């Protein structure tokens, strides 16, 4: 096929910066490779149309829909502009059946935690293993993540999932531990690849920042923490004092969530980054910013340890304030070596994708 038509399925849009940008990055990258690529607009599931309509009406009447729309207006506008073209909105099984009208030659599931049990639920959960795809459509997993390094599915679920993933043309996972899980529980070989956001260059992200013409940040230490705590605040305070830097943070609890470009600019302008976010860690590496990662156990340590280990940066992560993180802050990072590793990993990811797509 001269120009394969590709559909990409990932987790539903939820205003998470990393989730939005990984969805954008994969579709943008494949379009740049010349593929006719669509985002499969999977939303949070409902059992049927009547349930969907009833819930939407209740949310509207109590004002939740309007409040959510106001809070996420900038992230939503980014999603609409950059994660495109998109399929119709999918919330029910009947919505899902209409995907056949797009005649995708390949459907890709990934990236993000599309295979983490806690993240997929409801009547449509099996579609993250592409159970809805017809027999003549090529199935691929790109950088799919289990989120953690332990198996969460019971025996019945494992057998049901294995029946579907055995139909895949190619499987790749985001964490090294995912390679072992695929082999142990499915008996299948998976490749280890980088998160989609790493397929793009810093220039790709800088263009977004420049487009919105944002003012420069006068602060020097960028702080992005998903789960705020007194301990993390203490670590941030000590780091900033050690470096003599003022701090700047993106507060996701604002009435209106900041623009995606503002979040990116935090990394762009920073002299140092403190984060407990997986994608905060990844963008620190991409922008070549010295950083400290506070391990986020609830969100899955395997994600952090895998990417940090890949780039020889595992020593940048701490688990508590009791560790000697001030020593870590003072250590230099060999960015030439890091960028060399990234270049090789981009080549491997490109090779995987072009060979998997039909």
What is the overall shape? globular
Tell me about the largest β-sheet.
6 strands, parallel
Radius of gyration: 21 Å
Helices and strands, in N-to-C order?
EHEHHHHEEHEHEHEHEHEHEHEHH
Which range does the strand content fall in?
5-15%
Query: What is the percent of helical residues?
Result: 40-55%
Note the total helix count: 14
Structural class: alpha/beta
Using the coordinates above, name the CATH class of the largest domain.
Alpha Beta
Name the CATH architecture of the largest domain.
3-Layer(aba) Sandwich
Distance between the termini: 7 Å
Number of domains: 2
- Would you count the extended β strands for me? 11
CATH topology of the largest domain: Rossmann fold
Oligomer: single chain
Which residue ranges are poorly predicted, with pLDDT under 50 across at least 5 consecutive positions?
A: none
> Biggest sheet, strands in spatial order?
2-1-3-4-5-6
Mean pLDDT: 90
Explained architecture:
- Residues 16-297 form the Polysaccharide pyruvyl transferase domain.
- This is Polysaccharide pyruvyl transferase.
- Keywords: Transferase.
- This protein is of the alpha/beta class.
- It folds into two domains: 5-199 and 343-356, Rossmann fold (3-Layer(aba) Sandwich), CATH 3.40.50; 202-336, Rossmann fold (3-Layer(aba) Sandwich), CATH 3.40.50.
- It contains 14 helices and eleven strands.
- The protein has helices spanning 17-32, 49-62, 64-71, 73-82, 93-97, 155-165, 176-186, 202-211, 230-243, 260-269, 278-286, 301-310, 325-330, 335-356; strands at 5-9, 36-40, 106-109, 138-144, 170-173, 191-192, 221-224, 247-249, 272-275, 291-294, 317-318.
- A six-stranded parallel β-sheet has the order 2-1-3-4-5-6. A five-stranded parallel β-sheet has the order 8-7-9-10-11, with helices on both faces.
- Helix 6 links the parallel strand 4 (138-144) and strand 5.
- The chain is globular.
- The termini are close together.
- The model has no long low-confidence stretch (mean pLDDT 90).
